[in-house]
Specification:
With about 100 residues, this protein is mainly alpha-helical. The chain has one domain. The chain is about 65% helix and about 0% strand. It is built from 3 helices and no strands. Helix 2 packs parallel to helix 3. The longest helix is centred in the N-terminal third of the chain and has 21 residues.
Length: about 100
Amino acid sequence: MSSCIGISLEQLLAWSDEAAHCSKRDFEANPGGLKLPSGISDSSNVQTLARHIWGAEQRWSQRLSGVAETQITDGPLDALFAMHINAVSAHQRRSALT
């Protein structure tokens, strides 16, 4: 009997999607938050950090799907969030095929 406790990939992706939507709502309510400084992953501010996170999601999704990689956008918020939405949509399409 295994004592490992964990979550499935589906649960992890659902949590990630929920967190991304929550972040977007926060940024929409407080747009100045995107301009706050950030030192994470060479990001100068929170907007470049969000670009890094959602751009990485998009890039990995494209690689796993075997489709051509598209440009990672610089913004604004809706364009950045669209990268997350594209990644989630690609995963859902892959899941529907299996």
